[in-house]
Amino acid sequence: MRAENPILQVKNLQVDFLVKKHTITAVKDVSFSVDKGTTLGIVGESGCGKSVTATSIMRLLPRQYSKISQGQICLDGEDLLAKSEEEMYKIRGTKVSMIFQDPLTSLNPVYTIGTQLCEVLLTHKIADKKQAFEMSVEMLRKVGIGDARNKMKTYPHQISGGMRQRVMIAMAMLTNPQVLIADEPTTALDVTIQAQILELMAKLKEDFDTSILMITHDMGVIADVADYVCVMYAGEIVEYGTCEEIFDHPQHPYTKGLLKSIPRLDEDTKILYTIKGMVPSMQDMPRGCRFSNRCPHCTMRCNEQHPDLKDFDRHQVRCWLMDGNC
Amino acid sequence: ACGNKDAGGESKGGEKTIVYGQGGAWNRLMPYDLIGMFSIMPNEKIFDRLCGFDNENIIYYRAAESIDLSKDQTVFTVHLRKDSKWHDGEPVTAHDWEWTFKTMAKPEFEGYGSRGFLTQFAGTDGSGTGDIQIKAIDDYTLEMHLKNPTTPEAFFGSYSYYYYVLPKHLLEDIPVDELGTCDFWDNPIGSGPCKFVSEKPGYEVVLEAYDDYYLGRPQFDKLIYRVMSEETLSSGLLAGEFDVGWNTVTAEEALESLDGKNGLHADLVDNKINIQMVLNNEKFGPEVRHAFELAIDKQLIVDSVLKGYGEPVCSALMPSSPYYNKDLKVEYNPDKAKKMLKEANFDFSQTISLGASNSDREKMAVIIQDCLKKIGVNVEIETGDATTLMSGARDGSIDMCLLQSTTGASPTYLMMDYVTDGVTYCRVQDPKYYDLHVAVNQCVDKDDRIKKAWEMQKVLYEESPNINLVDQDIYMVCSSKLSNITVPNNDKCWEWVVK
Amino acid sequence: MPRYIIKRILSMIPVFLILTFAVFILSDYAPGNAVDLIASENKMTEEAYQSLIHAYGLDQPLLVRYANWLLDLFQGDMGVSVRAKMPVMQMIGNRIGPSLFLMVTGLVLSVLIAIPLGVAAAFKPYSFWDNCSSTLAFIGNAMPSFFLGLCVLYIFSAKLGIFPGYGMYTAGTEGSLGDLLYHLVMPAFVVAFTLLGDLVKQTRGGLLEVLNEDYVKTARAKGLSEKVVIIKHALRNSLIPIVTVISLNIPYIVGGAVVIEQIFGWPGIGTLMVQSINARDFSVVMGITTMICVVVMCCNIILDIFYGVLDPRISRSK
Amino acid sequence: MQEVVRTIKDTKLLIQKENFFQKFVKHKMATVAFMIIAIEVIIVFLGPVLFDIDPYFMDSSSLAKPPSSVHLLGTDDIGRDIFARMLYGGRISLAVGVCSTLISFIIGIPLGLCAGYFKGKVEFLVMRCVDIFQSFPGLIMILVLVAIFGSSVFSMIIMIGVMGWIQPAKIVYGATLSVCEKDFVESARSMGASHATILIRHILPNVLSPVWILIAFRVSGAIIMESSLSFLGAGIRPPQASWGNIINAAQNATVLATQPWIWLPAGIVLFVTIICINLIGEGVRDALDPKMKR
Amino acid sequence: MDKPLLEIRDVKKYFYSDGIKVGKKQCVKAVDGFSLDILKGENVGLVGESGCGKSTLGRTILNLYPATSGTIRYQGQNIEKLSFKKMRPYRRELQMIFQDPYASLNPRRTIFQSMEEPLELFKLGDKGERKEKVIEMLNEVGIGREHLDKFPHEMSGGQRQRVAIARSFILDPKFIVADEPVSALDVSVRSQVLNIMRRLQETHSFSYMFISHDLSVVRYLCDKVVVMYLGKMVECADKKELFEHPTHPYTRALLSAIPIPDVHRRSERIILEGDLPSPANPPTGCVFHTRCKYVTEECKNVCPELKTLHGSHQVACHYAEKFYE
Ligand SMILES: Nc1ncnc2c1ncn2[C@@H]1O[C@H](COP(=O)(O)OP(=O)(O)OP(=O)(O)O)[C@@H](O)[C@H]1O
Ligand SMILES: Nc1ncnc2c1ncn2[C@@H]1O[C@H](COP(=O)(O)OP(=O)(O)OP(=O)(O)O)[C@@H](O)[C@H]1O
Ligand SMILES: [Mg+2]
Ligand SMILES: [Mg+2]
């Protein structure tokens, strides 16, 4: 599973939140790496720590009450966690960019699109005002916005959701970053628009050779865009491997369940598979495997001992069941 | 830069400026349309009057040199000063006076408050209009015909503040119905001791000394009247914002927190404030009224509310005056009062309303309430602004009301609201009091006057058409540069000593 | 935008009519009238009293008087003050300037103090600065302005003599700008202080809320420094509710100015209002009512325009 | 934002298990403030009964005397006991604050509710009224009203109460608008609930939380209003005491400078009371709305 | 064929904004002429892009919004003009389920209170009976009685949605509008709820209109699928027919755009240009022409009628026959 040419490497990441004097470990022991020019997809249910993982790469977690208590995040060989805040200012937006779920709220309503686009270039002193303008127009064209020059002068509320999301992508791509983190970039959009955006991202990836960290909870989207997949559950990676592997040979009961419980467009299902129960809350995690209370194959051991993420073929799986097989 | 520096200061090269803080605003600078005491002060500086009145019950003359009284005591022959000049340099003549009175009495000249005082003159009707009997005999002699016999002392003691002279030569071409509101009043020209400089209505009026005033040029260069809220007068004096202020510094405040501080000095003024309680004379007979008077502990009012700066009285006159009836003694006798009420079949179950407007009077009202309770009379205190209470007293919805007025030595101060024949506050209808007053007014001889005045006071005390409670001491607080302000209305500004 | 303003003005007309009518009726019910007051100061006969009542038209029916008043108003005439015999328009004209000057300065002062305080507080919630500014906000909210005014006056003017406490300029001078500002310090401070609490709270709360918004996260992800994020991206957005707070407070400022003008002898509309109510000079009261309506309306329209400047969503959709 | 909201939902198990009271108690300042107010209320309402003191009794042997064993807080210039006046004044000030707030809410809540729920004409009417009341300073309006109706405690309560209805009405209106958008209202309607049922059962309980928060601020606002009116000579009038008019003795420079016992206690108590009430308001806000505080 | 349970004829719903603009009122044509028959026991799926008027249609059918024009007949009775009061008896038989599990239960009322309310409103049974009924219904959706006294915020989204579903069934309705009841739920919870819906549909005899933007869910649950675009019906057919022979260009694009969770089946996506036009200002002619690849002059000018092809397959496209394969 070691990537040959990792541009982004996350090792044993653990993030803690301090909520009302309780420490909550939102993300634990997360490791993955992203190769140059590839897409890593992270899937998982709501609240499983996808966004926290992404945000901690940007080092944008709320400082007052969160802490990266363990691990390493290496971008292009540099340890981001060792950087000072000022150094991070220089890295954000240039080497790593991020786009968020909701295009409606991710653009500042009081500034024009142009201002917000140029701001990136001006802040990082990549270009002067005039150049910045031209570069932004150019980028807008690339993401498929016609009449880009005029659109520069519009305010976010004057353009549609799909267009806004494109502007977000343009903004992220302006500086030609090495890594683009997309946190559920299409969840708020309609399917037809989602298709447009996914298409666009695929094209940009080709053109710029950018590595993408794609976060979503839609297995369909993952199947569509990712080269590698991390499946997360309750703050942990439960399965990690190439896209084909995960979809063709899911090993972890959670991944299996997830895949089976989706109604398919291409075939009729009589009764959907269901994963019984619900995700345990962060306060009362099971002692052993975090999935144990919902797992159909749960054993004594699962209840007692916490499994590690183990290599298994071209897979990494966190499950005791795998032990026997290995 | 402020602080102990004197108000106004010598901002313009050694100019002497006096800033006068007034607790309320003048309504306008038009001497026949004055409302309230705060209006009189700036007006009477600009416009001249015939005479003024000293504390000693002595007339001092201003525009008049002397006043003769006819035999039947109804005609004044006024000899005017020959050196009086308008601020524009023209001489003031008897024709100005005649014109002024005649014009003010014309019916077209409508809607002005102080015209009510013209009713004293022959030829006018009850609202003060008509062919007023005032004539200029020659340039400097004026003849005034009155409705009732009187003496100059008595007459001007009551009314001198209301008759002014206006410049005929500037105003006679203006139609009478526009006279009251014409441009002249924006920049009035009079013949008084001060010239008008500028005015910000309701806030500030700036006057300057009139060099040619016949009684002498005032020592200041500028006199500025400013309105300030009553609450902040004393801090204003302390801060040197005002050189002198009128009217709400209490004696205690003047002596304890102002005198000697920041160059201020407080002087006792001869006049006093007389606090009286008017009662509904229709509702309460003489016995009941007097019983109330006996039941009120006037000394307590002096001690507590006035902090001892005052004295209990039983007449509207100052006790030091020769006209004050020395036989009358302040009496506090609740038992007797109770007996009197019982004899008068007073209905003890009723609740009497007592109106009081400012905070001192409210405190007095509390004491009165307490006193009357001791003889079994229930009193309920009504508070409100003066206007509300006045109209309440007038229409009878308030039974008793506390009022204050300045007092002096002259028996004219005995003339109270009940004396006028028309609208009275507390429905005094007994003509006896009016007749008594006229009798006093008619006496030319001083001893005679004193006798009549004593007699009148005795009647007033025994029947208590209104109850005189206490006389309150007044202190004038001035900055160090100003002294010799004696009377509370301080009209003799040419005598003020300015450093 | 102009259309919108016209619409706003039109929508204020019924408000204005109802309000003035209410005040008109109320003033009619008030015990005593201007003539009573004149009569109480100047002894007069019943006849003279009645002739004055007639002269001022107080014997006409209420509705007739209101209609006349309205008609006159549309011709730019607010009537004549019974007391001062001066056109009400002119009286108000003399007073409105100082009043507005005081209120606007107070407002600006308070905004200038409150926003940095609020920003400092939001920058590091629960820090020393935050505690300081919220304490200040608390005191500002809890301190009755008259009491603050009296205390400030006593300490700074009467005792220390640092600031002048009366009027707009030194008596006897024409009042240079410096002198004016010098006199303005204390009243403006008191006006500012009464508003401070609300503004600091709103700035802090609004900013904290905005800091949670996605676009702030976007701005951070762009690599902007925290200062730029707060000042450029967050503050601008949180100004919008601040403008709302200000516009809601305008009547309070006008009302509070009555007290403050009274204390500091400021020749403004407030003192005139109190004088006129006490004197039952209702043509002036009506005039001031009208004036206040107009001022509040203008302020609101100005703030609306300001909204538009701050928030393109509003200006573009007209 | 999304994250935080979700976080709150997640951590809800922690938070929501505590009831309102427990959450309120967490706010230490508010708890202290609450206790102070509670004690104050007890003293003010039981004090006169227990201590047998008369706020109107004038002790002519002790005029404007500093605190002593006979007069705990001294006497005013006509010998009335300051402590007694404070207690009675407290009754009146608190009564004015609480009762006028009550009136404001009794008027404001139904109006806001109806305006937000029925929309159309009702909304238009109510909102125009709000405009009217909002575009005119309440203080000035009350000054005019006082000139007419006088300034007894009763009329003071009514006037301040009536002038104060906009704030609750507006808050309730806003909340109602947003609650009406919620599906459960629609769902109640789709189940055939009547307007009254929807308003009382579904909307009212859900719009009350901002109202609870507002209560405290309105009470303190009303107390300040009363004292400001007293200052202008239009508030509660002597002989009746209120904190406002006790403080007004400080208008006299002598009293201000040399007899602080006359006005200082009332000033401090008024100030502390308002601060405490505001703190309680903050506490209620934090307890009802965990978003504001982490 | 029976008489349809619900006949919807040319229903229109316009929203007029009388905001701050002077002069002409702006009008949003949320639903602009919609006709459909729903038979007893038939499950209709309604799909379309966000903002195309699905929810509005659902609410208009239930007379929660007054229709601007058109008729809605429920069991032969016109209900679109009924007043709030007159509508009450029908409410019992027409129910609605909402999208947001966090908003569809009154946060101040316990689960039991919320569940009991419909029974109480229609005065059904005494206290004990009601409680029994509530417990029974909750059982059906897999919620135990220990949850009765909980407040909504003490439950998870899936549980709440199940309660909401149970509540809409408690009066034994004949027709239910389900407005995206699962789109706010997580994948693993969604399948639980979908299964429950499907089971209920088998055990109770009622019809419903299932609104969704997710065709795969519709496919799982419904018999008939209606595709909407900008306030209009563009295609309507039986499930099988529709998925095998999607005809309208929009339907085809929609079908192709849905990502399939299968790495080997990457479908050829048809990418539509541009965005959904605003319903305040819909395009002339065919509403879809601005984004259609096959647009002709005719499309731009003439609004296509619904054509019936092959049984009950209806399509609103000028070239329906050509596209039908
Ligand atoms: N600001 C925060 N404060 C406290 N806890 C937080 C915060 N942000 C996230 N968490 C915790 O971290 C966990 C993971 O949250 P995260 O936002 O990463 O989930 P997610 O996978 O992105 O979910 P979604 O798909 O809903 O976006 C949550 O359960 C939450 O408890
Ligand atoms: N109450 C309303 N007032 C004004 N316009 C409305 C109202 N409700 C909906 N609309 C408008 O009607 C159109 C259709 O809205 P509707 O909610 O029915 O869409 P939808 O298909 O349900 O969308 P979604 O999939 O996002 O739920 C939208 O453009 C919307 O702006
Ligand atoms: Mg997330
Ligand atoms: Mg919808």
Descriptive overview:
Chain A: It is a peripheral membrane protein. Chain A: Belongs to the ABC transporter superfamily. The complex is a heteropentamer of chains A (326), B (499), C (318), D (294) and E (325). Chain A has 326 residues and is an alpha/beta fold. Chain A contains 13 helices and twelve strands. The radius of gyration of chain A is 21 Å and the shape is globular. Chain D is mainly α and 294 residues long. Chain D has one domain: MetI-like fold (Orthogonal Bundle). Chain D contains 13 helices and no strands. The longest helix of chain D is centred in the middle third of the chain and has 37 residues. With 325 residues, chain E is α/β, with parallel strands linked by helices. Chain E has a domain of 79 residues. In chain E, the strands form two sheets. Chain E has an eight-stranded mixed β-sheet, sandwiched between helices. In chain E, strand 9 and strand 10 form a beta hairpin. At the A-D interface, loops of A face helix 1 of D.
Describe the structure concisely.
Chain A: Residues 8-259 form the ABC transporter domain. Chain A is α/β, with parallel strands linked by helices and 326 residues long.
How is the secondary structure organized here?
The complex is a heteropentamer of chains A (about 325), B (about 500), C (about 325), D (about 290) and E (about 325).
Chain B: E1 17-22, H1 37-46, E2 51-53, E3 59-61, E4 64-69, E5 75-80, H2 94-104, E6 134-138, E7 141-145, H3 152-159, H4 168-171, H5 176-179, E8 194-200, E9 204-209, E10 222-227, H6 233-238, E11 244-246, H7 251-258, E12 264-279, H8 286-295, H9 298-305, E13 310-312, H10 334-343, E14 351-356, H11 359-374, E15 378-383, H12 386-395, E16 400-407, H13 431-442, H14 446-463, E17 466-479, E18 482-483, E19 497-498
Parallel strand pairs in B: 1-10, 1-11, 14-15, 14-16
Antiparallel strand pairs in B: 2-3, 4-5, 5-7, 6-7, 8-9, 9-10, 12-16, 12-17, 13-17, 18-19
Helix pairs in contact in B: 8-10, 13-14
Chain C: H1 2-29, H2 34-41, H3 46-55, H4 62-74, H5 88-123, H6 128-142, H7 145-159, H8 177-211, H9 214-221, H10 226-264, H11 269-278, H12 282-310, H13 312-316
Chain E: E1 6-17, E2 26-38, E3 43-48, H1 54-61, E4 69-74, E5 77-78, H2 88-91, E6 94-97, H3 111-121, H4 127-140, H5 157-169, E7 175-179, H6 187-203, E8 207-212, H7 215-221, E9 224-229, E10 232-238, H8 239-244, H9 249-257, H10 297-301, E11 307-309, E12 313-315, H11 320-323
Parallel strand pairs in E: 3-8, 3-9, 6-7, 7-8
Antiparallel strand pairs in E: 1-2, 1-4, 4-5, 9-10, 10-12, 11-12
The complex binds adenosine-5'-triphosphate (ATP) (2 copies) and magnesium ion (2 copies).
One adenosine-5'-triphosphate binds near residues 28, 52, 53 and 213 of chain E.
